[in-house]
Amino acid sequence: MELKRTSLWEEHQRLGAKLVPFAGFEMPVQYQGISQEHLAVRNAAGIFDVSHMGEFIIKGKGALDLVERITTNSVESLILGQAQYSCMTREDGGILDDLLVYRLSEDSFMLVVNASNIEKDWNWVLLNNLNGVEVHNISEKTALLALQGPNSIKILQKITNTHLSDIPYYHFERGEIQGIKNIIISATGYTGAGGFELYFDHEKAPEIWNLILETGKDLGLVPCGLGARDTLRLEMGFCLYGNELNEDTNPLEAGLSWITKLKKDFIGAEFLRDLKKQGIKKKLIGFEILGLGIPRAHYKIKNRDGREIGEVCSGTQSPSLKKGIGMGYMIELDYPLDEPIFIDIREKLWEARIIKPPFI
After folding, report:
1. d(C-alpha 342, C-alpha 279), whole Å
2. 18 - beta bridge partners?
3. Residue 275's CB: how many other CB atoms inside 10 A?
4. Over the range 121-148, which residues count as b (16 or more CB within 10 Å of their CB) and which as e?
């Protein structure tokens, strides 16, 4: 299958990015190095091309009811200009995707979904659009840049008249950057380092990308790839679809009860209400290695006797902490939190301790 490319593919090549297949796209995994890019975001700023993500518009009569039905969080509670983290579940509670919901107007919403799930999610929207609500898949027309890090606001404020400091976390405004209008400037991100995500017409992507890079060069801004995006989100304990989340896992097991409003009716709510009464079979935990080992996905989690009690979903060497960290599912729900666990790394058991994320 031929890989798709974002509107910034040529810019990534020009900057010497290492391009790899990801979710059907050819995407930059790194430029100068994952650790270097990671620390730049934590200490200054980094910019990511995440235009491979999907965007759906749901608007008009019945839009609120449709979004409420297919997502787990309380959409009705959103005010205009606010976004929320949510997920879509099947009837059996399995997670189809995790996503962001933006309230653009009283009866207009934007759903931002994972690149690997665009087709599946779009078909799910169509399947459940029982009342003929107006829906549009604008994924291929939309560019998305993530400007992240403590210097993000200084950089972006130089090129927009929008008062960025007035945008609360998980809120957004429509603004203008150097004459380019109708840009959604959203105080969201996947790094835990603060910053903004920008949605706009994909044809303007090279112009805005290069403008931001030039504006931020004296403030430590660097282009970043998906490698640093993954280590940054893992330090914060943010879930990644395909690792912590999938159709065989439900939001109660994944620690996402806080975005799962069981008092409302959504697809999968009845199953999840029953599951809450019966009790879950596994739970997501965070951990750090006490030695030099580096955990990876699918490594087994064991107790001190070597009995398997879980499996790692995500693991890495934290660039900030200089130690191995990870998340995984444990099947022993009553395992003592002060009791060490052991990660089986190439047939050697590395001691670790359970930690509630974020790790930093």
Report:
1. 25
2. 30
3. 19
4. bbebbeeebeeebebebebeebbbbbbb
Q: What is the DSSP string of 111-177?
A: EEE-GGGHHHHHHHHHHH-TT--EEEE-GGGEEEEEEESTTHHHHHHTTB-S-GGGS-TTBEEEEEE
Confidence of residue 13 (pLDDT cuts 50, 70, 90): very high
From start to end of the chain, where are the E strands?
A: 18-22, 25-30, 45-49, 54-59, 83-89, 95-105, 108-113, 134-137, 142-148, 172-177, 180-186, 195-201, 221-224, 283-289, 300-302, 308-318, 323-330, 341-345, 348-355
Q: Mind spelling out the 3-state secondary structure of 265-292? A: CCCCHHHHHHHHHHCCCCEEEEEEECCC
Identify the helix (H) or strand (E) that includes residue 35.
helix 34-43
Q: What residue ranges define each of the domains in the chain, with the CATH number in brackets?
A: 9-51+140-235 (3.30.1360.120), 54-137 (3.30.70.1400), 281-355 (2.40.30.110)
Distance (Å, whole) CA 47 – CA 27: 14
pLDDT in tens, 204-247: 999 999 999 999 999 999 999 999 999 999 999 999 999 999 99
Contact of 8 with 213, CB cutoff 8 Å: no
Among 356, 350, 220, which Cα is nearest to 296's?
Answer: 350
pLDDT class for 1, splitting at 50, 70, 90? confident
Backbone angles phi, psi at 145, to 5 degrees: -115, 140
pTM over 0.70: yes
What's the confidence (pLDDT) of residue 30?
98
The first and second tokens of residue 191, run together, are: 């790094």
Task: Note the Cα 200 to chain centre separation in Å.
Answer: 19
- Rounded Cα–Cα distance for residues 181 and 328 (Å): 43
Strand order in the sheet with 83-89: 83-89, 95-105, 108-113, 54-59, 134-137
